[in-house]
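thought: fold this chain, then report.
action: predict
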Amino acid sequence: MPKKYQHLFFDLDHTLWDFDTNSEATLRDLYAELKLDEKATVDFSSRRAFIFKVGLGLASIPFGSMLYGITKGKYNYKVKKEIER
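observation:
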């Protein structure tokens, strides 16, 4: 099976594509096209800040669990002696 990709680029500093600005422009266009801006007023910057905080909070749950497992759970186990009857 031939390779589909020869190169893979990571755009960590938004030099190739500014996702935040592009997504906000797309949402503004959709609101205007669907005439949603007449029905409700939306502040996109506060919405984006809220979504960012929610995403950061959700991402911290597995990260916190991993840190707990590394620091506390690695050797924190007890061997119970089984009682023979």
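thought: worth noting. The helical segments are 19-33, 44-71.
final: tokens above.
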